[in-house]
Write a structure and sequence with these properties.
Blueprint (H helix, E strand, L loop, with lengths): L1 H6 L17 E3 L2 E7 L7 H16 L4 E6 L7 H9 L5 E5 H7 L15 H21 L2 E6 L3 E7 L15 E3 L3 H9 L5 E3 L4 H7 L4 E4 L1 H6 L8 E3 L4 E3 L1 E6 H7 L1 H35 L3 E3 L4 H18 L6 H16 L1
Parallel strand pairs: 2-3, 7-8, 10-13
Antiparallel strand pairs: 1-2, 4-12, 5-12, 6-9, 6-10, 6-11
Length: 339
C-alpha cells in the first residue's frame, strides 16, 4: 500500500509536467525530450514512464530519450503551460484545469455527474479522441494520449447526504476553474477559490472544510487527515491528457511522433486500469483511517444530485464548449446505455 500512496499524487485535478531549461536538444538525429511530473520517483506513474522511455530508446536505437524531472518542482499547471509555450517544456500531462486553458471545449468531459461508469468514460474518450486531436493541433499541441485523473469525490468535515447540505459548507475550488465554480454554485455552496498548493493550509486553518479530489489524490496529499467524511458518489470524472508541443513534434518528424504515440497509448490504458483498482484500495485505506464513507444516495436525493448536471451543462454551453459538442457526448452516452 505504501507504493499505492506514493503513486497517488499523479491523480488529482493537479496533473502537471514541468521542465527546467532549454528547447529540445537535437544532436545530429538524436533527441532528448525534457519531461517532468509531480509524480514522485517510485510511484506507479513513474514506473510506467520509465518503461515507456526504455522502449522508445530501444526502438529508436538511442535516437530518442526522455529526461524526466519527477516530484513537481516548478509551479502549477498554468506555469507549466507558459513554459511549454516558450519551449522550456516539450511534453506535459494536464488535468482539465490546465488543458482547458488551451482548448476550453475539452472541459465538457469534466461536467458534474456526466458519467455513470468507467465503460462510458472509455467510450466517450475513444470516440472523441480524433476530434480533440485535431482541435489541439490547431492550438499548437499534439494529443498523445488521454491520461486519466480519476473520479473526484467530496471530502468534508461535515456530513453531506443531500444537495441542501452543501449550503452549509466552505468548499474549495481550484482558482481559475470555471467548471468547478459553476458546479458548486449550482449545488448551493459558496466556493472559495484557491491554488491547489494552498489547500492543506486552508483545511488546517478552517478556511475551507470541504474539498473534492480522487481518493488517490486525497490520500497522497494527506487531505483525508483533515476531514471526517467522504461521499461515495463521484462528483465528476477528471480527465487528463498527455500533450506534446507542436514545435517538438515538428522536429521529431511524423515517424518518431507516431512511435511515441504508439508507446504511450497502450501503456496509459494499462496505467488507467491499475489506477482504477488502486482507487478502490485508497477508499478502503481512507475508511480504515476513521473517515466515514457516506453511501451513494438513493431515490430523490440521488436525482437531486444528478439534476445539477443539467444546470451546469446549460450555463456553460456556448461559453466553455459548443452546444453541438455536448449533444455529441450525450449521443455517445445514449448508445452506451442502450447496450
Amino acid at each position: 500500500m505504501e507504493k499505492t500512496g506514493r503513486s497517488l499524487i499523479v491523480i488529482l485535478c493537479i496533473f502537471s509536467w514541468i521542465s527546467l531549461c532549454g528547447p529540445i536538444r537535437a544532436e545530429g538525429k538524436n533527441f532528448t525530450i525534457k519531461f517532468a511530473t509531480i509524480a514522485p520517483e517510485g510511484s506507479t506513474w513513474m514506473e510506467y514512464l520509465r518503461e515507456i522511455d526504455r522502449k522508445i530508446l530501444k526502438k529508436t536505437n538511442g535516437r530518442v530519450k526522455f529526461r524526466v524531472y519527477a516530484g513537481g518542482i516548478a509551479g502549477d499547471e498554468l506555469d507549466v503551460l507558459r513554459k511549454m509555450r516558450i519551449g522550456q517544456i516539450h511534453a506535459a500531462a494536464f488535468s482539465g484545469v490546465g488543458f482547458g486553458q488551451i482548448l476550453p471545449m475539452v472541459r465538457v468531459l469534466d461536467l458534474p455527474f456526466l458519467f455513470r461508469n468507467p465503460r462510458e468514460i472509455d467510450m466517450v474518450h475513444r470516440e472523441l479522441k480524433g476530434f480533440f486531436s485535431e482541435r489541439f493541433r490547431e492550438k499548437g499541441f499534439e494529443l498523445i494520449s488521454w491520461a486519466e485523473v480519476g473520479n473526484a469525490h467530496l471530502f468534508s468535515k461535515k456530513p453531506i447526504y443531500k444537495v441542501e447540505d452543501l449550503s452549509r459548507v466552505k468548499v474549495w475550488t481550484w482558482s481559475g476553474d470555471p467548471l468547478s465554480k459553476e458546479t458548486f454554485r449550482a449545488l448551493g455552496a459558496n466556493p472559495i477559490p484557491l491554488s491547489i498548493t494552498d489547500v492543506t493550509t486552508a483545511l488546517n486553518t478552517g478556511m475551507v472544510d470541504t474539498v473534492y479530489a480522487p481518493p488517490l489524490g486525497a490520500l497522497a496529499l494527506q487531505w483525508y487527515r483533515y476531514v471526517s467524511h467522504m461521499n461515495a458518489l463521484p462528483l465528476a470524472h477528471s480527465t487528463g491528457a498527455v500533450l506534446l508541443s507542436a514545435s517538438t513534434a515538428l522536429r521529431l518528424g511524423p515517424e518518431l511522433l507516431e512511435l511515441i504515440r504508439k508507446e504511450f497509448e497502450p501503456a496509459l490504458v494499462n496505467l488507467t486500469s491499475e489506477l482504477r483498482q488502486q482507487a478502490e484500495e485508497a477508499i478502503n485505506l481512507i475508511g480504515a483511517s476513521g473517515v466515514k464513507i457516506i453511501p451513494v444516495p438513493k431515490g430523490k436525493d440521488l436525482r437531486d444530485f444528478y439534476s445539477i448536471h443539467d444546470k451546469v451543462a446549460k450555463v456553460l454551453a456556448g461559453r466553455v464548449y459548443p452546444s453541438d459538442l455536448l449533444e455529441r457526448v450525450y449521443e455517445i452516452l445514449r448508445k452506451s446505455r442502450q447496450r
